């Protein structure tokens, strides 16, 4: 393990203990083999001067909700040392009382809630304390002879603590174990199946000890040979969509699903004993609130496999509940598809990333442990106690607010600009994960949000459409919303003068292209959550004009296609509705020059031309996007086959 300490950077912070604490915490946080997504905690003992000028001894300890990789000074809660030490003298203390007492002892009431390990940090008589969930240390302890090997590895350099629940119970155990010891002889503590502490009076020394101690554990484990992708046993996209549907049904809300057949995941899924080793328990109990205790093992019958997992989870809960807990959902958070790869489930892309990272580290640890005597996680009861620990559940409760489309997967065609772009942004703002398909290659780098991504694809290319939808399904699990918007406005030509190529171009893109994307999407929409198609039509359908036959005829055909689709797909629960925009001027085709030319043609100012409708209102792309969102939402849950104009009121249409 590389020591990343930069003395030059540290020297600039030497007169500020909290700044040094931030610096070394980030060094730990940036290494995912030490901590993952909010894991671990650090502290520094210092002084706090209150508003009256009085000085107090405090422990600046990492606050709940902060990640060591990005933590700032505001992420550390200043808690009175005397209170924390007094709490350690109590014979018993409930979790709720501990949290209240620690918050009451904070010098800054606006600071985050102190770590549950604050009392333990206070007991350690060194200025800087670092705590990580090192993969190597935990992996070593998750083997049959783990404790003995750790004792042989570290000797008297560390205190070895048998697994107990984090928080007050752990602090009391350490306090009892260290009565009368010489702390100066210790460099750290190993918490079996949990993690490792290091400590020193200087930030550099505490961090350095963490690196040195973890490196010893890394070197004690077998060297993992880099794997290359084996011959693939491909997974069918429809199987992923089926899996996602079953998990969402068990969850009673849509869940995104990401399939992973990277070399590490594929190798793990190829194990002949994967159903056994994968279900022995998590890398560390801290992960259980993200991953549940074990993954789903997917068999021949996908739906039946999910039902079996749910029944097993029910039995697990009934085995260990004391009668006061309310059972959590029975849906899995990750799955093994033997011989194919792994899948992870989450309501948001952020959740997917967290679970994917944890699973990646877990399977790597399992492989290492299996080469070192075998993988042996904590017993079920200990995992259950952490999963149903009220302080862990409180972490999840902070992020329960959901967008109206959260967990749903959407595709918008022609979304690199104009109406399609606005639809993509609006759906993502509502919580959906959106894939924008557009012929423009710049679409790939167009969106900064992790909830929207672009794929360059020509809707006239059937194979490209299939490949794009396959990518959508493997990364999100399926398809729930399709906004067919891709199209072109043809040059003005009377029928008598119509160039063959111009006519065919309009039909190919505006009509046949839309048919193809819809046709290829239908198998996935059938497995979607409240599936819906919205087709972006045109005012030219009910009110065509001269010299626009190529465009108008294609859009009229598209309108008829939408009506037929509504008839054909209703039995599958798929709604099909159409919007007919007109004079939406914040799109790429309406340049200032074109606007000025058209306004002059009608003897109007540009502003008058923009609002040339009955309501005297300019229609924007965002207005169309709001209507599209309504159509795919609850407001239209009983509506299919509808056509709605959005044009500010057009006399010819009316």
Can you offer a commentary on this structure?
The structure is a single chain. The protein has about 650 residues and is α/β, with parallel strands linked by helices. The chain has four domains: about 5-220, L-fuculose-1-phosphate Aldolase (3-Layer(aba) Sandwich), CATH 3.40.225; about 235-390, 3-Layer(aba) Sandwich (L-fuculose-1-phosphate Aldolase); about 410-585 and about 620-645, NAD(P)-binding Rossmann-like Domain (Rossmann fold, 3-Layer(aba) Sandwich); about 590-620. Helices cover about 40% and strands about 15% of the residues. It is built from 24 helices and 18 strands. The strands form three sheets. The protein has a seven-stranded mixed β-sheet, with helices on both faces. The longest helix has 26 residues, at about 500-525.
By secondary-structure content and strand pairing, the structural class works out as alpha/beta
Helical percentage: 40-55%
The average pLDDT value, as a whole number, equals 94
From the spread of the alpha carbons, the general shape counts as elongated
Low-pLDDT windows of residues: none
Count of DSSP H/I helices = 24
Annotated CATH homologous superfamily of the largest domain: Class II aldolase/adducin N-terminal domain
| Backbone CA Rg | 30 Å
Strand % is: 5-15%
Can you tell me the number of structural domains? 4
Q: How many strands appear in the DSSP assignment?
A: 18
Q: Describe the oligomeric state of these chains in a short phrase.
A: single chain
CATH topology of the largest domain: L-fuculose-1-phosphate Aldolase
